[in-house]
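We were asked to recover a plausible sequence for a given structure. The inputs and outputs are reproduced exactly as logged, with field labels preserved.

PROBLEM: sequence recovery
POSITIONS: 143
GIVEN STRUCTURE:
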């Protein structure tokens, strides 16, 4: 059993473990998607981001970008011109997240495949095995 951690705080984010801290910074529906799109393009303007993620509202995109900027993951460059121009790019701390985001994407691909094959098995009355236990991960998770 793991012992409880003390509550810590960074940039007004309270957390007890590093997993909570990470999810507090990149958690939510849109932040990983925003980071991924900026990583693919390198530099993006607000309108480009909005077009690449049509399901997000303008208000939510603005809010998420501000939070990513406050947390030091996204750089916002404002050009003093008419009409105003703002570009977003990743800071080095966000670049370190890209392999993790790619792994999350790969997991999604595998999950979709598993779910599709599982529903086919269920239709055919196939037997579905129980959960897989991974004792090799216990030390890492409890660290």
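RECOVERED SEQUENCE:
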């Amino acid at each position: 059993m793991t012992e409880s951690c003390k509550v810590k705080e960074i940039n007004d984010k309270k957390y007890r473990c590093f997993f909570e801290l990470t999810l507090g910074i990149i958690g939510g529906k849109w932040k990983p998607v925003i980071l991924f799109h900026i990583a693919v393009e390198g530099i993006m303007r607000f309108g480009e981001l909005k077009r690449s993620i049509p399901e997000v509202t303008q208000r939510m995109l603005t809010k998420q970008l501000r939070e990513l900027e406050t947390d030091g993951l996204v750089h916002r460059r404002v050009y003093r011109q008419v009409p105003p121009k703002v570009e977003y790019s990743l800071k080095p701390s966000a670049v370190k997240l890209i392999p993790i985001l790619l792994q999350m994407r790969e997991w999604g691909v595998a999950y979709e495949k598993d779910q599709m094959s599982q529903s086919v098995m269920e239709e055919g009355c196939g037997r579905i095995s129980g959960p897989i236990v991974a004792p090799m991960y216990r030390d890492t998770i409890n660290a």
